[in-house]
Amino acid sequence: MANAECERTHGDRDVLAVSARELAGLLRISLRQTWRLNSAGKLPKPIRLGGSVRWSRQEVAAWFEAGCPDRKTWESRKAVQG
């Protein structure tokens, strides 16, 4: 099932993980900027699935609501919360 077709069928809320391209779309930034921010440690840590890199949609939403802290700060906040 194609990505767009999958999203129409299941809706955005059911998507567990997003690709760099999808993350860029969610944040309204370029794909290149997404990879730059990731390399600089300014995005949540991605998940590696085989050769794919994905971000947890739920974690990205929580990170955004927390004010987009850098990865180190975000990871320490997550550790304190449980």
Can you walk through the features of this model?
The chain is of the alpha+beta class and 82 residues long. The protein has a single domain, classed as Orthogonal Bundle (Arc Repressor Mutant, subunit A). 55% of the residues lie in helices and 12% in strands. It has 5 helices and 3 strands. A 3-stranded antiparallel beta sheet has the order 1-3-2. A hairpin with a 2-residue loop joins strand 2 and strand 3. The longest helix has 11 residues. The chain is globular, with a radius of gyration of 13 Å.
User: Largest sheet at a glance?
Assistant: 3 strands, antiparallel
Q: CATH topology, what is it called?
A: Arc Repressor Mutant, subunit A
Uncertain runs: 1-10
Number of domains: 1
Helix content: 40-55%
SSE arrangement, N to C: HEHHEEHH
Task: Supply Rg.
Answer: 13 Å
Strand content: 5-15%
Class, according to the CATH hierarchy?
Answer: Mainly Alpha
Q: Count up the helices.
A: 5
Shape: globular
Strand segment tally? 3
Kindly, what is the distance between the CA atoms of the first and last residues, rounded to a whole number of angstroms? 36 Å
Structural class: alpha+beta
Across the major sheet, the strand order is: 1-3-2
What's the architecture in CATH terms?
Answer: Orthogonal Bundle
Mean pLDDT: 89
Provide keyphrases for this structure.
3 strands, disordered N terminus, Arc Repressor Mutant, subunit A, 82 residues
Task: Characterize this entry briefly.
This protein has a 3-stranded antiparallel beta sheet with strand order 1-3-2.
